User: What shape does this take?
Amino acid sequence: MKAVDEKTLAKQLADLPLGELRYSDRLPSTNTTALEWVAQCPPEYSLVVADHQTAGYGRNQRAWHAQAGASLSFSLILYPHPEERLALPLFSALAAMAVCTALDAFKPSPQAQIKWPNDVLLDGKKCAGILCEAVWQGNVLSGLVMGMGVNISSAALPPASTLLFPATCLEDVLDKKMDRWEFLHHTLKQFIHLRKSFPSSSFVNDWRTRLAFLGQPVTITSIDGKSHHGIMQDVDEQGYLVLKEKTGQLLSFPLGDVSLRPA
Assistant: This one.
């Protein structure tokens, strides 16, 4: 799948209110590059894009497979305003919603869902992952980096034996060739549009309608390995997952270092 040069990509994204653009044929991680760039205070919506990401990572530093030409790997620099700073963890939800609504533009429209807290599913399999990382100066927020990896073609998929959750790609589900840069445009456009209603109750309600496994048995595992089993009852206004255990007890889990698996 073709690569582009920075000038050509900038032209394709010219109608969007982006900041500066840095495109590389090969980078260890777009998030790492963007996090370093924040120190220079680039304009909001400055964008880092890589054709091939060699050391991408997700939550808990899990490796993210990103084969050259087969994946969409990018990071966006944001400067949340005061109201948004109270809902920083929900930026992952905003990014996931942007992918889902971008996919709505394709026919036949696939049933995109969000696996709480930060993965996008097609046909019940992961096609995109999101990682938001904040940059702090003491307790002052300098900026937020929203990183995303999207499996475009089947070459992006690692061996099934290495996966913690089944994976798929856009071309397999949509049964058509995909232009990575067109999909990048769709996703950024939706992200900027959806941010206008973020982090309102209406946004959280729209996010809730996209959540996979709502009302179903799931297992929540914390970073220390402790697991909790129950029904995924709801998510609250802060994005916390509410789990109903067999005993009827309700437990609340913040967006962060926990993972969800269907039972």
